[in-house]
Design goal:
Chain A is an alpha/beta fold and 419 residues long. Helices cover 39% and strands 19% of the residues of chain A. In chain B, strands 1-2 form a two-stranded antiparallel ribbon. Chain B has 15 helices and two strands. Classes of the chains: A alpha/beta (419), B mainly alpha (334).
Chain lengths: 419, 334
């Protein structure tokens, strides 16, 4: 009897499931809309960033009238739950059921890497304005994965290291979250800094979500460093910056950071403790460029906050890809031509204020700005450019082929040159 | 938690009748499962495949939770270790995928043996906590041992062999593996060994005084359960082609347990209903709202209130009640 009951329940569940899952899918006609799947974490640890991804992305499409290449554009948003398994599931759903023409998004590197591995098998174009894992556009490049509006993790710390050397800093202490994104950003900094004659006097890897930085800050204070480099994201960044100030280190040792450390998502709620931190990025919301300020104003008016990296990158990424879609008159179904065109597309008029283009590996070449946090006229903190490094690629000054022969950055390999 | 009434303890003539009755039903289910890919779209077939794989994990948990009375919270780790080993073998070492999966299952079974050796002397909430802690250790190792596990970023696989590359043929392949596994687990819990486990669940001291080697039984049950979880982990590698700490983390153990509970603890086959319900619900609800996790949460609360025995367990109880009523009537009538 129990078996019979089991059968009935199974049958019912499956029947119900089938009904729900087989939501009508209309076969595509010639002039059907271009379907874009956007995956963003709406739940889980980085849900706040995910919200800004959706905001930035939809802001662009609104301004473009939801049109590209003469076709309507339909955006399907899915929650990746900050979890790679969920991200994979959602990617499968978007590609296989919703039949999207391309995927966009994801925030955490592990979700992006999982999805990238999936699209490798089926060729769906996948654009990653936030996913920074170096190897996706280096040693493990996937043809249909392009960092439109994005950057690779070790790309921006290198000019910052160069800038630090020029300020006369010779000894750096580094503190970072202990995961690949941190290892790669620190690797970029450490390699350039030591090759230019500097020395790394200490590297501290702490777990994600560290609430008390005093053990690390205490050690850093005793290292006699000229400068400190911090690679922090989210709440860790807030806490580190606050504790750095309250330990009195702020006035003793200048603080440098990876761009995430002073991203708007972090400093939006902070006061004077975040003033004067120097970071490097492709974008500075405080840059005195008309295109940048127009974007910042539109975004702030609509969402009553200054745009973060997440919003900005997705806005630019969407803009970039749209320009390519316009070039090929909306024929995104021809994937090879589409991807080729994206890679060949230069973006002269984005909120970056400066033209950008892709290198041969699908990673953009940017004018990298060294930025310092300062108060704007509304009394809010933002990042203001103080120096520019033109045309910085993910390979810095190295030859790509030689560079990729060195192992990827990890906790054990930081590219530190022995003195 | 109440469990469904015992079935195999019934007398043998009745058992034979039930068996003969069950055969057509089993055949029907198999036919239904075989026909399924023909009526579903390719994405839905992949969901059905996922349901089959997670049913195996849920059943492996049910062996311990439902039949031995020990609720484990570490099976996600056992499942995930199998996946890690298989992917490491194929993508880092460049080995054959089948050997990789075999090694994964061996590793999972070995890990289960370690867990078992540490955990079987406890019961109740202590068992729960101990398995939870052991699972967390595995998660911590996977997260921190970057050189081998890829840390937070996880490991990417090399894809399925060509003959099961598309969703439909992979579904059949999984079905061909899952069907005999299910039968094996069914036999296990209805064997004398399984009956002993139930005896231990109901009264450990009585079983001990009757001369049963309680720790040995629990140890074997745990190891066997780990073996099945390992096989599920191996199948998951073929399905997902990716493994990261989120595969071994607590939420994986919890979701496996939830599947077993939703279907009905101690019903074994209820795991299929539980896995189907949860996975289908996840996919269906998330298409409509970003708050899908809240919807799932509310659903679980409702199930715990109205059917704490799980869907299948509840159905069994209702059925048993009706049957006893009708048999009383028959007796009084005759």
């Amino acid at each position: 009897m129990d078996r019979r009951r089991f059968l009935k329940t199974t049958g019912l569940t499956l029947a119900a499931g089938t009904g729900v899952l087989s939501a009508p899918f209309v076969a595509r006609a010639q002039n059907a809309p271009i379907r874009i799947g956007l995956m963003a974490p709406q739940t889980g640890v980085v849900a706040a960033g995910g919200r800004e991804i959706i905001d930035g992305f939809s802001l662009f499409w609104e301004s473009a009238g939801n049109q590209a290449g003469g076709r309507k554009v339909e955006i399907l948003v899915e929650d990746d739950a900050s979890n790679p398994d969920t991200a994979l599931q959602k990617a499968r759903r978007l590609v296989e059921q919703a039949k999207v023409d391309m995927l966009f998004g994801n925030l955490l590197a592990n979700t992006g890497l999982a999805v990238a591995n999936y699209v490798k098998g089926n060729g769906t174009p996948y654009f990653i304005p936030v996913i920074a894992a170096d190897d996706l556009t280096q040693r493990a490049r996937i043809k249909n994965v392009i960092r439109a509006g994005g950057y690779s993790a070790s790309q921006f710390p290198r000019p910052l290291a160069d800038w630090a050397l020029k300020q006369g800093y010779r000894k750096v202490a580094m503190i970072s979250q202990d995961y690949t994104f941190g290892h790669e950003q620190c690797g970029g900094f450490a390699q350039t800094f030591t090759e230019g004659g500097g020395a790394v006097v200490g590297q501290f890897w702490h777990p994600l979500n560290t609430s008390d930085f005093s053990p690390y800050l205490g050690q850093i204070a005793g290292l006699n460093a000229d400068v400190v480099f911090a690679m922090e994201t989210g709440a860790d960044a807030t806490r580190l910056i606050q504790q750095y100030a309250s330990f009195g280190l702020k006035d003793q040792i200048p603080l440098l950071g990876a761009q995430n450390a002073t991203d708007q998502s972090v400093i939006r709620t902070m006061g004077a403790e975040c003033e004067g931190i120097v970071t490097s990025a492709h974008f500075a919301e405080g840059a005195d460029l008309p295109a940048t300020q127009a974007f910042v104003k539109t975004y702030s008016d609509k969402f009553s906050k200054i745009p973060s990296l997440y919003a900005f990158s997705h806005y630019v990424g969407a803009m970039w890809v749209t320009k390519a879609i316009n070039t090929i008159n909306g024929k995104v179904e021809d994937r090879d031509t589409f991807l080729e065109t994206v890679l060949k597309t230069d973006l002269p008029d984005s909120p970056l204020g400066k033209p950008v283009r892709f290198d041969d590996y699908g990673n953009p070449i940017y004018d990298v700005v060294i930025r310092k946090t300062a108060k704007n006229k509304d009394g809010k903190f933002w990042n203001v450019p103080i120096a520019t490094y033109p045309q910085v690629s993910q390979f810095w000054k190295y030859d790509p082929v030689t560079y990729m022969k060195q192992p990827p950055y990890s906790r054990d390999f930081q590219g530190i040159k022995k003195a | 938690m109440r469990t469904a009434p015992l079935s195999a303890a019934s007398t043998s003539p009745e058992l034979q009748i039930r068996r003969s009755r069950a055969l057509p039903w089993i055949a029907l289910v198999l036919v239904a499962l075989a026909v399924l890919p023909m009526i579903l779209s390719s994405y839905q077939v992949s969901i059905a495949t996922q349901v089959l794989i997670f049913s195996v994990l849920a059943m492996s948990i049910d062996i311990l939770a439902g039949f031995a009375g020990r609720t484990p919270l570490g099976h996600g780790a056992i499942f995930g270790v199998s996946s890690y080993v298989a992917i490491y073998w194929t993508s880092t070492m460049g080995g054959d995928i089948w050997i990789g999966i075999a090694l994964g299952v061996v590793a999972a079974t070995a890990l289960a043996a370690v867990f078992a050796a540490l955990a079987i002397r406890t019961s109740g909430v202590y068992f729960l906590l101990l398995t939870l802690a052991l699972g967390m250790i595995v998660w911590g190792v996977c997260l921190r041992w970057t050189a081998v596990t890829g840390g937070e970023n996880g490991l990417r696989g090399i894809g399925r062999p060509a003959f099961i590359a598309d969703h439909v043929s992979f579904y059949y392949a999984v079905l061909v593996v899952v069907a005999p596994l299910t039968w094996a687990m069914w036999r296990l819990v209805h064997s004398p060994f399984g009956l002993t486990l139930r005896g231990i669940r109901d009264s450990e001291s009585r079983m001990r005084s009757l001369g049963y080697n309680v720790p040995l039984h629990l140890f074997l049950a745990f190891v066997v359960s780990g073996f099945f979880a390992g096989v599920a982990g191996g199948l998951y590698v073929l399905f997902n082609n990716f493994v990261s700490p989120s595969t071994v983390q607590l939420s994986q153990s919890v979701s496996g347990l939830l599947m077993a509970i939703t279907g009905g603890i101690g019903t074994l086959l209820g795991s299929f209903v539980g896995a189907a319900a949860i996975i289908v619900l996840e996919n269906a609800v998330s298409a409509y709202t970003a708050r899908w996790q809240s919807v799932l949460g509310v659903t679980f609360v409702l199930i715990m209130i109205f059917a704490p025995e799980g869907v299948v367990g509840r159905a069994r109880l209702l059925l048993a009640r009706r049957r006893s009523r009708s048999s009383t009537q028959r007796r009084s009538g005759g």
